Amino acid sequence: MLYAIFCYNSEQVVGAWSAEKDKEVMAHHSAVERNLAEVGKVGPVVRLMPTTTATTVRAGREPSVVDGPFAETKEQLLGFYVVDCATLEEVIDIAGQLAHEPGAMEIRPIMHFSDLSKGAKAATGNAQASERTEPSAATRK
Fold it and tell me: Does residue 90 belong to any structural domain of this protein?
């Protein structure tokens, strides 16, 4: 089953890290990514730009475009991983390896995954965590 692991933390805290601390955290994440890649369990990994670079488009009678993030929150979405795991427990273990204080990792099963940018076939996951889907082209070696 494909899962998304959303990485949340305070942009103020992360933005205040020294270049050395940021490099250390990213090296740790890269090591986890390499381990997952070796066993064919990692798909796209994304580190997002700060919310100050965000643009929000709201639906309505006429679409509204607003500079900035969707909501004011204490923690912001900083990035995400797509992983291919047999069980929720396996994903929880991976999220635990990625977690850094004071941040949080949110796990959600992926209902649908498509990567047509590389001519890959769309892989459709089932929202029930008990069912296993074939890995998408992005998660295959």
Answer: yes
